[in-house]
Amino acid sequence: MFFMVLWSFSVTSFAVSLPDFAKLAKDNRAAVVNITAVQKQGRQQQNMFDQLFRRGAPGPGNQDPGGKNFTPAPKALGSGFIISDDGYILTNRHVVNDAEKVTVFLSDRREFVAKIIGMDEGTDVALLKIEAKNLPVVKIGDSDALETGEWVMAMGAPFGFDHTVTSGIVSAKNRQIGREQYVPFIQTDVAINPGNSGGPLLNMKGEVIGINSQIWTRSGGYMGISFAIPIELAIDISNQLKDTGSVSRGFLGVTYQDVDFKLAKSFGLKEIYGAIIPEVSKDGPADKSGILPGDIVLKINGSKIMRAADLPFTIGRTRPGDKVSFVILRDGDEKNMEITVGERPGAQTAEIAASQGLSNRMGIKVRNLPNDLQNALGDNGVQVMQLEKGPAANAGIRVGDIILSLNRHRVTNLADFNKVVKGLPANKGFPVLVIRPELGKRFFVVRIPE
After folding, report:
1. 350, part of any domain
2. Domain that holds residue 360
3. Is 13 one of the annotated active-site residues of the chain?
4. Catalytic residue selected from 79, 120, 124, 401
């Protein structure tokens, strides 16, 4: 009897400790929508149901009653949620991009053709509008208050199965994915599949704290890693799209790089955090404010920059013209600076085109830059022509890299290079600033053995 009582108590306690998603699903169902986007002809994207129903069909398309083959217009399936009772809806850009017609399906089975108010490629956010009134809306939460390990729930239409609910926990915050600079993604282990895109991620208060956007997969389906766009960012983007039809972002005019253990040691940092600045654009906001290559950004408006990705996350959400306080590290000393943030221009690409010398200490062979390359770069340095197995190669330097500085000493030609190399410390890591076409300017830490 004693053991039976204990077992009953244990089971009851365990059940009480588990989250209850039923009320969350019920309360939010009416504000979550399914979306079908008919893509422009020529776009290679198939409706998942077309693939299923075509099995065994005679030919590449279906057949009409007259027996002739036809190919239906490609469709994208996705989800979204209503943020205002007069019909504004948030979803992902990739759900409705290049669409000729967007249809929104409500939980009460009403259908509306939606107007695309605007889309933002940088964050993958899109704002839609349907002509309806007195619609149910979601509650907007605070993703900054999320804690790793906290329970969350997703709603959407994976593979077209409308109003599907899945749950999990917050795995990490402030994730950067690939080249996406402006979204500090929320990582979860919530099951997300094609069709979930654009749907809400909710906390246990029933508040939307993210837009389900991407998964990390090798199979094409869910593998335990999902990403959501923080709701504060999405709302800010939607407000700009609603007000102006476009999105304006803050801009510094710098490249940035993580401070790892070796770089922190070589720059004399006691703690490993911050964003190091390899390059400053001439006449850009950072240049005008006195930021120099090699500076390490430690804080912005009093908040620590823990990783390099925090820099574009923070500046991208700052309005052009706003003044921002910086704490930087330069030559071992902290400095306070104020920078007026500029507006990010359109995407630009800089083409970097590519007497010889030899330094056996670093294991590289370099040459002076020819005049045409100097003019193209607007800078001077030496170019790596050959690599031996040694310190430079071990640090990640490659043939074709253009070296601009060694151990914070400027290198403009072979004479500078050979002079500086002779004085490089042994058995101690030092920073080397290089230009590489696919990376721009970047620091590497080289260590020469005794």
Report:
1. no
2. 356-446
3. no
4. 124
